[in-house]
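sry for the spam today, last one i promise. struct tokens for design, 394 residues
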């Protein structure tokens, strides 16, 4: 018979060549069989139920470190993944801060159990929503970052360790959308884009950043990380059966890369993007967008740089990098591309957002038709007046 230091009252014995465990509070108390082995979630939950006499207890409150299948264990596993190590130090630092804050949160008020000690499967959509909504009431941005951090732990539990099934991921139905200022991330109209192009010449970092954001519809993270190695030449058979050679960027978007691998993108280089990239040095490889010292821009720094570059061009505040991505969506919708094509071009997972671009483009077309109808009507009236009133004789 053996005992375990972390589970007082639990003893083991050999049965048919297998070690089995049981719990007995004292020699007069009934014996409770414990499934599995010490450290396993089922064992720990059964032990907790036996000790407390609570047969409905689903979680544990024991100071025994990072148990298997807990959020603490998921956090440790996350830090060893290549996806985590590919983040820049500042991103890892911010995510770590939110993950640690989450794991220190109490599962229930007035009880010592924290989320770090809790099996991942215990977190359902209702509990996750309560966590996010409590944060959102004070600081919506913190709620969004916290949700993203928790999603990374759930990614470990679902995709890497298979602790829970994909359909049981509690974050699937929860989104945090931040309200921007009235001028935030608005699309860049033609006159604004022309002002930027006039101020920042081809070959400059400002122009390259602008071109990658607009002509590829890239997010800030993809502008910062896009590499020359992503540039490919492929022979494509078109719908009419003709063959063409296409130069394109073939890459996976950074968004959701840690959970799903990121949307796979194949974006041909249009003539004006080729013109803007032509003077850049490709021989050293690395990122397409580089600083003066030849290093990559960090994702976060591009926001501040774009603010400076637009200010230099005399452009009002509010025209951002994400606004260029929206401009690309609007632009291709106005070119007659339908929702499915826009979804693929921007890497959206559904057509809901793409539909917005189509609706906006159609709304503009409709209003142009309205304006043309007004002009035609007024032209007819002016012509009639110029001819004078007609006298109709019966």
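last one done:
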């Amino acid at each position: 018979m053996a005992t375990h230091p972390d589970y007082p009252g639990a003893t083991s014995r050999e049965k048919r060549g297998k070690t089995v465990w049981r719990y007995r509070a004292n020699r007069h108390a009934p014996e409770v069989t414990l499934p599995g082995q010490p450290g396993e979630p089922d064992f720990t939950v059964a032990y907790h139920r036996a000790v407390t006499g609570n047969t409905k207890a689903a979680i544990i409150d024991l100071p025994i470190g990072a148990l298997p299948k807990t959020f603490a264990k998921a956090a440790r596993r996350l830090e060893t993944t290549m996806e985590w190590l590919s983040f820049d130090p500042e991103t890892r630092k911010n995510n770590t801060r939110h993950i640690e804050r989450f794991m220190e949160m109490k599962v229930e008020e007035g009880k010592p159990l924290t989320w770090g000690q809790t099996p991942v499967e215990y977190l359902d959509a209702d509990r996750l929503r309560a966590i996010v909504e409590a944060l959102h009431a004070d600081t919506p941005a913190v709620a969004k970052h916290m949700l993203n951090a928790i999603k990374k732990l759930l990614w470990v539990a679902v995709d890497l360790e298979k602790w829970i099934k994909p359909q049981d991921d509690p974050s699937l139905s929860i989104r945090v959308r931040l309200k921007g200022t009235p001028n935030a991330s608005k699309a860049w109209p033609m006159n604004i884009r022309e002002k930027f192009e006039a101020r920042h010449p081809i070959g400059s970092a400002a122009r390259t950043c602008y071109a990658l954001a607009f002509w590829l519809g890239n997010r800030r993270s993809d502008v910062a990380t896009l590499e020359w190695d992503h540039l490919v030449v492929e022979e494509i058979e078109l719908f009419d059966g003709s063959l063409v050679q296409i130069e394109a960027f073939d890459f996976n978007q950074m968004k959701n890369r840690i959970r799903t691998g990121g949307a796979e993108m194949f974006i041909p280089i249009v003539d004006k993007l080729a013109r803007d990239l032509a003077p850049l040095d490709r021989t050293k490889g690395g990122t397409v967008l580089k600083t003066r010292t030849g290093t990559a821009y960090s994702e976060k720094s591009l926001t501040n740089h774009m603010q400076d570059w637009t200010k230099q061009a005399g452009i009002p505040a509010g025209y951002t990098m994400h606004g260029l991505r929206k401009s690309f969506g609007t632009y291709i919708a106005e070119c007659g591309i339908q929702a499915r094509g826009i979804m693929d071009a921007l890497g959206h997972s559904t057509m809901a957002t793409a539909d917005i671009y189509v609706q906006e483009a159609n709304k503009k077309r409709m209003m142009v038709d309205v304006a043309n109808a007004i002009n035609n009507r007024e032209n007819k009236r002016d012509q009639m007046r110029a001819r004078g009133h007609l006298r109709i004789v019966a």
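The chain has three domains: 2-51, 71-168, 190-354. ok im logging off now
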